[in-house]
Write a structure and sequence with these properties.
Number of helices: 13
Strand order of the largest sheet: 5-4-1-2-3-6
CATH topology of the largest domain: Nucleotidyltransferase, domain 5
Oligomer: single chain
Radius of gyration: 22 Å
Order of helices and strands: EEEHHHHEHEHEEEEHHHHEHEHH
Mean pLDDT: 91
Shape: globular
Number of strands: 11
Largest sheet: 6 strands, mixed
């Protein structure tokens, strides 16, 4: 099965074409193409994602990267095939809030044959409502033009299942039960999976998500967006100069690290950084590096300790870590160290290019849904900004 997947949940516009085979217990995926346009430059001036700007950029970018993805996967056949007046009217009504997307889609769709695609998978949530709706309506429009079945996929489930994707399409199976840690700008959750369909959330953040904390701390320190990258670069420089630090210059708390549950809290670390910066007034570059390192250390220690506690209690066969924050090299390394000497669990982390938001993972999540629940009715498919696992 050839899947065209669409991701517009936040500030990445992405489309992928993935070949999927196998059943629900042993699926395998081969990446045929992936096109992505980042909006980092657009949102950097705001220090975070501005929803209306994200929506506008998605509408501008979807058709160009749709064409690019088809071309890379060799699924585009050029032909002059006008769309009927009646269908254009339906499309115009569907995309009435995205007139730029409507014009670009009509112009391109009339120059190609129906793509060699068996299914469309689109992120329906969670995410920013204006951004999600652009992707959902784009999927509906493609269905209206070519009658390709549609599935609305869960973005967070995509992060979990992204570890199944291989470049060559070889089988990559997860042993169950599995423990999943989801760490992103909007989520910090620990989830137990008895199998690929059944999940139970056992812990979550009580306030800020870990990625949100990175961005807020970076903004306090006058660093560029996205904050996770900027803070890691500073922390990395400090580790180069001081491989071992017995006592940090600016110690920060590790909130909830010793609580008996599996919940998290990152607001306190963020507030502690704020008070530290107020005491210093005008921190030097070296002081910024020291604070960034201690912040990264504190966050990582909490994540690793809580996850280790869950491993010890639930004894899963697999540990899956997904979400944009696992692109952080230091956090990846610390989790690898934690599981290195454990023969009872296998660690699954997506390739760094699949850790942040992408359309490949949406193809995987959509395929799982299609196998278990079938296709969605395009007429009733809606964006669900607060969708959970």
């Amino acid at each position: 099965m050839i899947i065209l997947s669409i991701e517009t949940s936040c500030d990445e516009t992405a489309i992928a074409i993935v070949e999927a085979n196998g059943d629900i217990k042993k699926p395998n995926f081969k990446l045929l193409s992936h096109s992505l346009i980042s909006q980092i430059d657009i949102h950097a001036k705001y220090g975070g994602v501005f929803p209306s700007e994200a929506k506008r950029a998605h509408a501008e970018n979807l058709v160009p990267i749709f064409a690019e993805a088809l071309q890379k996967a060799k699924k585009e056949v050029r032909i002059s095939r006008p769309i009927s007046t009646e269908k254009k009217a339906q499309l115009k009504k569907l995309l009435e809030r995205e007139p730029v997307l409507f014009e670009k889609l009509i112009s391109y769709a009339e120059t190609i044959e129906k793509p060699e695609v068996d299914m469309i998978s689109v992120t329906k949530g969670p995410g920013l409502p204006p951004a999600l709706w652009v992707g959902v309506n784009f999927a509906k429009a493609l269905n209206l033009i070519w009658d390709i079945p549609v599935v609305g996929a869960n973005h967070m489930e995509g992060h979990i299942l992204s570890v199944l994707v291989t470049k060559d399409g070889d089988e990559k199976n997860i042993e169950f039960p599995a423990l999943s840690l989801l760490i992103s700008g909007g989520h910090t959750e620990l989830v137990i999976m008895s199998d690929i369909e059944n999940t139970e959330k056992i812990g979550q953040t009580k306030d800020d998500a870990v990625g949100e904390a990175f961005d807020k701390v970076a903004r306090m320190m006058g660093l560029s967006y996205p904050g996770g990258i900027s803070l890691h670069v500073l922390a990395r420089e400090h580790r180069k100069d001081f491989p071992i630090v017995e006592k940090p210059d600016f110690p920060l708390p590790r909130p909830m690290i010793h609580t008996p549950d599996f919940d998290f809290s990152f607001s306190g670390i963020k507030t502690a950084v704020l008070y530290t910066l107020k005491k210093i007034d005008s921190p030097t570059e070296k002081q910024k590096q020291s604070i960034a390192r201690e912040f990264e250390d504190a966050v990582t220690e909490v994540l690793v300790k809580k996850t280790k506690k869950a491993l010890d209690k639930y004894n899963p066969k697999s540990l899956i870590i997904g979400g944009g924050v696992i692109a952080n090299p230091y956090i990846r390394e610390e989790f690898s160290k934690m599981t290195k000497d454990r023969d009872d669990v296998t660690l699954y982390i997506p390739d760094r290019n699949l850790a942040t938001d992408n359309a490949v993972m949406i193809a995987v999540a959509g395929y799982r849904q299609m196998l278990t629940r079938g296709f969605d009715n395009p007429q009733t498919l809606v964006a669900e900004s607060n969708l959970s696992l």
